[in-house]
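[job 0412] stage=fold_complex status=start
inputs:
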Amino acid sequence: MAKMSYSEAKKELEAIVKSIEAGEMDVDLLTAKVKRASELITFCKEKLTTTDEELQKLLEEMA
Amino acid sequence: MVEPSFSLSELNRQVKNAVRDALPEAYWLRAETSDVRVNRNGHCYLEFVEKDELGHAIIAKARGVIWGNTYRLLSPFFEQETGQQFTSGLNVLVQVTVDFHELYGFSLTVVDIDPSFTLGEIARNRQRVLKRLEEEGVLRLNRELELPELTNRIAVISSPTAAGYEDFRDQMENNPAGFVFYTKLFPAVMQGERSEESIIAALEAIFQHGDFFHAVAIIRGGGATSDLSCFDSYNLAANVAQFPLPVISGIGHERDVTVLDVVAHTRGKTPTAVAEIFIAHLTKTATELDVLQERLVSRTQGLLVEERSDLLSLSNRLVHHSSLYLQRETAAIQQLATGARHSFRQVLQKEFAYLQEAMITTRHSTRRLLDEEGHRLIQAKRTLQHSSRVELRDERHFLENVEQFVRMVSPANVLKRGYTLTLKDGKIITTSKGLQEGELIETRFRDGDVTSVIQSTGLPSTESEV
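[job 0412] stage=fold_complex status=done
writing structure:
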């Protein structure tokens, strides 16, 4: 997931939520999907609110 | 004869008088400002120029002055009306008196200004530039770009010392939601003739960093209104319009929409407003995420509740139907058992009745049979007794007759009556056939036997009766 872009993560999340809402989700799959969705949410939230030191460094080194 | 002549001052005074006499009033003049400068005393000196149709060659030029006391009134009025500082490069409509000074020569003294003309000129220029961009098909290119959901790496074009830049950074860094922004300043001159070139250079520098950035902010410090003409420039607008990242403009003026504002992806009035746009965008992004999370949670919970209730309902139905089934089966079995017992009893009763009847019948008919047989036996006995007696009597008769007959036919009796027996080889013979001449035969009489030799054989000569 580390290399995933925000929009990719969001798209995947949307797809999961939609399929759960559509009632297509098998209960056996539900747990795994919800877990994945939670990871995606965490990932997205981190992108929004946690400073990426690597990015910060890149920015500072920019001429 | 010496011709009359003027000293220079005499001549200049003549010119001055002639000009004053010929052009005694104040006149409205259309011209472009150039070389505008204000000295320490507050007097404004400038050049008025007129260019040819292509806007290249200067075809007329005159010095101008706005005296301090006039300028102090006109300048703020003009800025207020146009949103534009009174500066070089403006097309203006000014009321001037035409003066000729012996020492300073020809000059136009500004006594009034009509800002609406300049406004019109600016607007016309903008329309021209926008029309050209439209014709070239680039006008909406930047507007059509999509601001990525996660827009937090922002290249900022600004003067590094501008108050507006500080406002922008403050706003971004202290956003209440705690969003992370990565901003990088690309310094540029934001005012005057060099600004166009400088901003374009900054855009090119940003372009060098490829897709690192999500968006560009072009901001300019707030404060007093100032020269906006560079933001109406075709070159800058064409660069911004075709820039591959969304450009957000915030060049610090409320009223005018410059060409830059039109081509930019989004226009913020001030640098602070630009920061708010970025923050609002991330807020929207975060909200969408929250909504998704909410939907996920509620739907998942809903699903689990549904599943649980489904299971419960299934199990209830199972129990219900099982017990119903059991009840039904039990009832059926009981009914069967009752039925079976009943019919078994019936069968038994029937069989029993039948047997009893049979027994009675049997006994009855047996008795009857016995009776009948008894009768018959008695009858038979009687008959027998009766017929025995008869028969015995008859038998006795018969036997007496037989005895008599037997007695009569016994060989002794027969022999007595003259009959003889003929024997051959000890056996009685009754025929003459087979007898040969010379053979011996015996003849038995009542009182003894004789042996004879056969002399001849043949048929008897007469039939004799016995």
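[job 0412] summary: Chain B is about 50% helix and 20% strand.
[job 0412] exit 0
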